[in-house]
Amino acid sequence: MTPEPQTGLEMRASDAERERIADALRDGVAEGRLTMEEFEERLDAAYRARTHAELEPLVRDLPVPGRPAAAPVPAAEGGWAERIGGTPTSRTGIAVMGGFQRKGRWTVARRFTSFVFWGGGEIDLREARFEDRDTVIRCFAIMGGIQVTAPPDMDVQVGGVGIMGAFDHSGSGEGSPGSPRVTVTGLALFGGVAVERKLRKEERQRLKEERKRLQAERHAERRELRAERHAERRERHAERRERRGSSERPSLEKRDWD
């Protein structure tokens, strides 16, 4: 039997097409069309999408071009390339009845192991460098919790197991071209390991400032439009008074003549 031809929406999406949708969503939140929560939810869905049908609804209500069937746009790897390579600053994170943090500008070892017992750990990859493009983060949480935070454009695969606990796989998803590949694995026993995606602080701040700038521009445009409308009303009012005055003059002159 000859297979039926695929429609455009059934076609597999490429990394470049996912990145184009991500750019459209960034424009949407910068212009105030999306809330930050909507943006993060849609961006996560964009990097998870496998087909055009999954990408299409994410920008359907945005007045921007960028449908997935468009020609691919070459993606630049410069940003990620600058963050891969170097001597790791940390290979382990351990907390026993306490806590540990790995966040900010640190260099992740290609094999990073974390362990908590009656404690908590935080592993933030949003501003981190990476010793190697392929990184494995092993998380073992026993009656405790570990939080792993990755940027939305990072390739993250989660494969841990929860026994009488929870190992959250919702943070899994492909990243932008050139991003490091991070595999999160391990065990949660009477505890939990959560993997989530969040924007970098700089990106959040940039979008916030861009939103403020656009709001200020819209306020200025509205003030200018109100001023123009007020001037038009005054001009129409003056014209009506002038017409009324010119229509009254002949009757007055006729009365004087009589």
Automatic annotation (TrEMBL):
Pfam families referenced in this protein's UniProt entry, alphabetically: DUF1707 (PF08044)
Entry protein name: DUF1707 domain-containing protein
Where does the signal sequence lie?
A: none
Domain DUF1707 span(s) in chain numbering: 11-63
Q: What InterPro entries does the annotation carry?
A: DUF1707_SHOCT-like (IPR012551)
Question: What organism does the UniProt record list as the source?
Answer: Streptomyces milbemycinicus
Q: Where is this region: Disordered?
A: 206-258
Superkingdom of this protein's organism:
Bacteria
